[in-house]
Amino acid sequence: MSTAIAVTSHDLVLPPTDQQTPTAALLQAPDAQPLEAALADMQVLVEQHGYVVAVYSASLPVAHERRLHTVRSILESDRIALLKLDLPPLGLAVLVRQLRQLSICDFTAGVVASAARLLSHYIHAGALLNSVTKLDHVPVSLKAHAKSWVPGSQFGVLANPDPQLIKIGNGELTGPEFGTQLLVGKGQLQSDWVTATLAPAWQVQGVQEMALLADSPRWWGTSKMIEFAAFLPDISVLYQLVSSVRREGCSWCGLELIGDRCGFCSAPLSPAENQTNGSGVLSQGAPMRPGP
Q1: Domain covering 124-231, topology
Q2: Region Disordered: start and end of each range (predicted)?
Q3: Cα separation values, 144 from 148, 162, 203, Å
Q4: Domain boundaries along the sequence of the chain
Q5: Residue 90 burial (CB < 10 Å; 0-12/13-18/19+)?
């Protein structure tokens, strides 16, 4: 029985990379679905899959987030994980797809849920912007704000895993030190900087373009932008990465987990318990592939 992955927007469900990757369930906003229907849908998911991992953005409207917690509370279910992640829209969609891939592997639901925090560190999510005056998810200096008013200025911004901001033509964004593919969401900004400059500098193994996600302009503060996310595309590498981390039993709910916090009940592990042996899973250049 596979773990169900659920999302709060159709945009977060990217096309699968293979025929085995399952889709994700949609958890609709309160103004789009009555509470009774939301309860019934969630109950069906739990009955069909055993466990549900719901992934949503930290910038999700309060009413929608409250609905998620209300459903879990009314159902009194410890089989529903609510993962609130502070990733840009495209980066979050990439992570959701990776969790969908892992959901049908031989990992328990607890491991799948807690893997979200681990995998997010390997997603380099950013954007090319014509202005940073309304950007509030990445620290912006007063100097950068002033440059935003200069006609023709463009900025390269990385929100994850470590915030970075450069003015195009003055510096470079630090990219991943392992093999990735690049997904690009084209907005209203006309530029080939992402594909012609950033992609070669990051030595990506492939570039795929798509339409900009609906929530991206709000998250980045402008519609004149191009969003991008570099990620590990190979399920075998994702599998090895998650498998390399020591598994523990949650002292609160009993589910299996990796990392320092349970994905279902959010109970933390003590530093002494949180030990990994995952160093070396990814190396300089292309990721290592697991052996037979």
Answers
A1: Hypothetical Protein Tm841; Chain: A;domain 3 (3.30.1180)
A2: 272-292
A3: 6, 18, 27
A4: 4-122+246-258, 124-231
A5: buried
Stated pTM of the model: 0.90
34-70 pLDDT tens trace? 999 999 999 999 999 999 999 999 999 999 999 999 9
How does pLDDT run across 235-267, given as a tens digit for each residue? 999 999 999 999 999 988 889 999 988 999 988
Which residues are CB-contacts of 211 (< 8 A; sequence separation ≥ 6)?
Answer: 185, 186
- Under a CB-based contact definition with an 8 Å cutoff, are residues 28 and 38 in contact? yes
4-122+246-258 belongs to CATH 3.40.50: yes
- Cα distances from 244 to residues 21, 150, 288, in angstroms, run 22, 48, 12
